[in-house]
Amino acid sequence: MDWNALIAPLARYTLLAAVVTVGTAYLVFRSGLPLLVLAGTGVILVVLGAGEAGAAPASGFGQAEEMDMAGLTEGMEMLPGSSSDYSLRAKLLFYGLGLVVWNVVGLAVLLR
């Protein structure tokens, strides 16, 4: 597993995008309700990013690679690095994780 390939989407979606989203909600509303809604949205995005509609058969994946059918195998990988753009699943997973973590931090600040 290439851990370096995880650093860019982690920084972009979990840190930057999630902090901007949660920070904006915190500064605009200054209450816990928007943060709870964002935390619920983050949980849903984590489930959508980590879940699969169904398991892809290994034989079909290998056969598609051998036949140079890149369109069929493009969205199957979870980790970025084989394509220039990050997969939608990785974006949803990292952004959802960021929303959950930063909302917990925001709620802890509000409850302090």
TrEMBL record:
Lineage top rank: taxon: Archaea
Its transmembrane ranges are 6-28, 35-56, 92-111
Question: Which InterPro entries does this entry report, sorted A to Z?
Answer: DUF8070
**Keyword entries, A-Z:** Membrane, Transmembrane, Transmembrane helix
Where the record annotates domain DUF8070, the positions are 1-110
Q: What is this protein called?
A: DUF8070 domain-containing protein
The organism of origin for this protein = Halorussus caseinilyticus
